[in-house]
């Protein structure tokens, strides 16, 4: 058994519990069936066994997911190089594309596999057999362009069917997939291509957003010019717009696939062969390239979907994401491996009307809808009538990741959109995790904004600075045992990987999030530990301050930062985005301040509250507090490649009487 306690939410009488699993949810749940097959009575027992007996659990997961191997593994895990460098399923040969594509095309050729809708209403759909044919033709085209096993291929594309096909084709031939956020500038794309010496860049002529064409080929050209290793740019014609063309380097996707055979043998890769390098932005220095393998990221993602989201064949998953974010590759591999249908959407989920997301969900029969708290905060301000106008009867689960919830938007999604009957399955982990550390099991009750258990197989804990477990107090989120999805280090920089995750507490992965476990065993993520604010010796996470600010009815969103102060060490500064019709005057500022003090106490009274028209965020709506703080303090901004709305920084800098540019120069 583990040498640390695993808290699990139990069926307490807490008045904060708002959802309990109905008999229908329990009856369909595949994790419950998994537990029954192994004579496990409770989730507490499963979590304990899944982290104390790694070899039993992960072998059982392989059987539960019905994964097919070209060659069986001789062991489940090899820890001879230490826990940070665990090797999984040694001796085995495995390529996840066989389970995601080949197997289903052979066994269920007419079953739906992929559906897409463009912002302009264009719809395309693929059965398992049709998807396999397109993947095979694309794989053969890549070979024609000189791509083979181990070569790196950048995928800088919008969410269109070809991004799924390209992702699978790259892995099918044993090449290494480099997902790149579709909103990056050319220099950011080039930084990732050059770091891994990519030979090919796949892109599109553009895509639609808010009804306008967003060019991509020009950005890809800029990146390719800065990347000496890139020999070809393969371009999908999405919009049919005229684009620059470099003869000998540039190739149209449709020309490359024309005449290619419909069959292509799947490369029998070793279990630990790399399949993806996915880059995460750092505050300073070059981006970190998390290296993932065929037996790692795809298996972990599929296991999370099966055991935490209860995704099954016949279900449809729709997660608002981009191929450059972890949830893009996660959605592709896991959904298809489980035999479910993946739905993807190209544009803005509130365009041309605020009900676009709900309309898509209803019309395409979505059963699992993944959103961000920021998106829900924006949509709830548009009115209850938009979601209530659509038949969401097929929707079973909401998924959520990326940032902590505030209570009001969580309740709006649960009560207004979900009718108080559909659980919101909160999910938190990361790119280097290949999925979740904490989740919300549909087998357990929920409180608003909570995680009700670790993902099975994840030995999560909350500890103090010395690694001692904490309960009912804020501490560091850690993982005490390895798992298959953990990154195999940062590409070309193993020391940075060890320093980032393994250097603080020997043998323990320190994730960098503040977390808390309450008296009932429910978990809460409170923000990044490097975002912590310390006012007169009192430590507070920005999410807690932001939740207090948005408790005022005029505040739609907020960002809280700590700024240096000679007396208190740091003081709180809050930036608030107001709801329509609210006047940004001194009276409202005083009222918001009083709301924060009323919830957090006088010690945490804000030093300043600034009303702004926007906050710096990624395209999926995640607020970039690091850039808020640096802009306000006049510090160099560092990596801004994930920033969706650069003008927001000028307004924040102006609040301190500064002027900023993205180069980091202040005037």
Short account of what is shown:
The protein is of the alpha/beta class.
Would you mind describing this structure in some detail?
This protein has about 675 residues and is α/β, with parallel strands linked by helices. Among the domains are: about 100-255, ANL, N-terminal domain (Rossmann fold, 3-Layer(aba) Sandwich); about 530-655, ANL, C-terminal domain (GMP Synthetase, Chain A, domain 3), CATH 3.30.300.30. Helices cover about 30% and strands about 20% of the residues. It is built from 21 helices and 30 strands. The strands form 9 sheets. A 7-stranded mixed beta sheet has the order 4-3-15-14-16-17-18, with helices on both faces. The protein has a 5-stranded parallel beta sheet with strand order 6-5-7-10-11, sandwiched between helices. A hairpin with a 4-residue loop joins β19 and β20 (about 435-440). α3 packs across α4 (about 55-65) and α18 (about 540-550) crosses α19. It is globular, with a radius of gyration of 24 Å. It starts with about 20 loop residues before the first helix and ends in a 13-residue tail after the last helix.
Please tag this protein with its features.
667 residues; alpha/beta; Rossmann fold; globular; GMP Synthetase, Chain A, domain 3; 30 strands; 5-stranded parallel β-sheet; 7-stranded mixed β-sheet; disordered C terminus; 30% helix; 21 helices; 21% strand
Q: Strand content of the residues, in percent? A: 15-25%
Count of helical stretches: 21
How do the strands of the widest beta sheet line up side by side?
Answer: 4-3-15-14-16-17-18
Question: Could you give the count of β-strands?
Answer: 30
Q: List the quaternary state of the chains.
A: single chain
Radius of gyration: 24 Å
CATH topology type of the domain at 99-257: Rossmann fold
Q: What is the name of the CATH architecture of the domain at 99-257?
A: 3-Layer(aba) Sandwich
Please describe the biggest sheet, giving its number of strands, its sense, and whether it closes into a barrel. 7 strands, mixed
User: Which structural class should the secondary elements be placed in?
Assistant: alpha/beta
């Amino acid at each position: 058994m583990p040498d640390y306690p695993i808290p699990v939410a139990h069926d307490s009488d807490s008045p904060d519990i708002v959802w309990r699993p109905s008999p229908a949810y329990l009856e369909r749940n595949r994790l419950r069936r998994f537990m029954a097959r192994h004579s496990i009575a409770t989730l507490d027992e499963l979590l304990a066994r899944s982290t104390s007996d790694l070899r039993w659990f992960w072998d059982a997961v392989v059987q539960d997911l019905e994964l097919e191997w070209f060659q069986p593994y001789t062991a489940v895990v090899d820890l001879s190089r230490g826990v940070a460098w665990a090797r999984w399923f040694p001796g085995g040969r495995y390529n996840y594309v066989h389970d995601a594509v080949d197997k289903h095309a052979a066994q269920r050729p007419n079953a739906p596999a992929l559906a897409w809708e463009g912002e302009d209403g264009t719809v395309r759909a693929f059965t398992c057999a049709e998807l396999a044919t397109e993947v095979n033709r694309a794989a053969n085209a890549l070979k024609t362009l000189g791509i083979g096993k181990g070569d790196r291929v950048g995928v800088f594309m919008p969410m269109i069917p070809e991004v799924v096909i390209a992702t699978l084709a790259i892995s099918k031939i044993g090449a290494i997939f480099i997902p790149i956020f579709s909103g990056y500038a050319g220099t950011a794309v080039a930084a990732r291509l050059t770091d891994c010496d990519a030979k090919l860049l796949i892109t599109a002529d553009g895509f639609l957003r808010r009804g306008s064409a967003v060019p991509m080929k020009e950005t890809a050209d800029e990146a390719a010019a800065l990347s000496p290793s890139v020999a070809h740019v393969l371009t999908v014609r999405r919009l049919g717009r005229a684009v620059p063309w470099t003869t000998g380097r540039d190739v149209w996707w449709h020309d490359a696939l024309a005449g290619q055979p419909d069959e292509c043998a799947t490369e029998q890769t070793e279990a630990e062969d790399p399949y993806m390098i996915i880059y995460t932005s750092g505050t300073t220095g070059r981006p970190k390239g998390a290296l993932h393998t065929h037996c790692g990221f795809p298996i972990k993602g599929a296991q999370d979907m099966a055991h935490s989201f209860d995704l099954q064949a016949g279900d449809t998953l729709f997660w608002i994401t981009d191929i450059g974010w972890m949830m893009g590759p996660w959605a592709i591999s896991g959904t298809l491996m489980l035999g479910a249908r993946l739905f993807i959407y190209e544009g803005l989920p509130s365009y041309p009307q605020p009900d676009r997301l709900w309309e898509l969900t209803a019309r395409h029969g979505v059963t699992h809808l993944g959103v961000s708290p920021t998106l829900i905060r924006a949509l709830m301000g548009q009115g209850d009538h938009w979601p209530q106008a659509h038949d969401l009867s097929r929707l079973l689960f909401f998924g959520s990741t990326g940032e902590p919830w505030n209570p009001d938007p969580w309740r709006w999604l649960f009560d207004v959109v979900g009718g108080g009957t559909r659980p919101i399955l909160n999910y938190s982990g990361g790119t280097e995790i290949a999925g979740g550390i904490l989740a919300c099991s549909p087998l357990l009750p929920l409180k608003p904004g909570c995680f009700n258990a670790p993902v099975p197989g994840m030995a999560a804990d909350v500890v103090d600075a010395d690694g001692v477990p904490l309960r009912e107090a804020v501490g560091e989120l850690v993982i005490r045992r390895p798992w298959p999805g953990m990154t195999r280090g940062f590409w070309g920089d193993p020391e940075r990987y060890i320093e980032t995750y393994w250097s603080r507490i020997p043998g323990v992965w320190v994730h960098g999030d503040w977390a808390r476990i309450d008296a009932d065993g429910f978990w809460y993520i409170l923000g990044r530990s490097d975002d912590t604010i310390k006012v007169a010796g009192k430590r507070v996470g920005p999410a807690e301050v932001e939740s207090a600010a948005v408790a005022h009815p005029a505040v739609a969103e907020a960002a809280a930062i700590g700024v240096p102060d000679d007396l208190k060490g740091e003081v709180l500064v809050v930036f608030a985005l107001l709801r329509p019709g609210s006047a940004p005057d001194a009276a409202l500022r005083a009222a918001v301040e009083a709301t924060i003090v009323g919830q957090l106490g006088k010690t945490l009274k804000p030093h300043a509250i600034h009303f702004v028209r926007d906050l710096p965020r990624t395209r999926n709506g995640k607020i970039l507090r690091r850039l808020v703080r640096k802009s306000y303090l006049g510090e160099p901004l560092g990596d801004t490649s994930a920033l969706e709305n650069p003008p927001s920084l000028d307004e924040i800098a102006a609040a301190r009487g500064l002027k900023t540019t993205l180069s980091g120069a202040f005037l």
